[in-house]
Amino acid sequence: MPKIRTSRTKKPPEGFEDIEHILDEYTKKMRDAENESHEGQRKAEALWPIMRIAHTRSRYIYELFYQRKIISKELYEWLLKEGYADANLIAKWKKPGYEKLCCIRCIQSQDMNYQGSTCVCRVPKAQLKKGTVVECVHCGCRGCSSDS
């Protein structure tokens, strides 16, 4: 995940003060996850907490703008531009079938074991054998299909 570019050369739009403390908490959690010991974990496993925090922060901003309609369009666009949320992930959440998508990497077919497929976490749980535990290799998701 790219670091948040908070240049702040331009003053943040009105309403940023209301959500700034929550975004600061996400930044602290992100810093703690980055500094956490990754001994005994696979390379991809070490990134899971960071990806979860980035997903949660993006979902928070998405819900503020699209569902709860609390923040202005100007503030929303400024947050995306400054890197507080993943614009590509939010764009996917607006499309049917991708409402619960965990990360963009899970829908890219180039990184998967079988050519032209998506991640195992995108398979609806109803189509899996009973008792099968699904865990994405890339982000640790346990199922983000809309039918789950």
Automatic annotation (TrEMBL):
InterPro entries: BUD31 (IPR001748), BUD31/G10-rel_CS (IPR018230). It is found in: Nucleus. Its main location: nucleus. The keyword Nucleus applies. Pfam families: BUD31 (PF01125). One of its GO terms (biological process) is mRNA splicing, via spliceosome. This is G10 protein. It comes from Dacryopinax primogenitus (strain DJM 731).
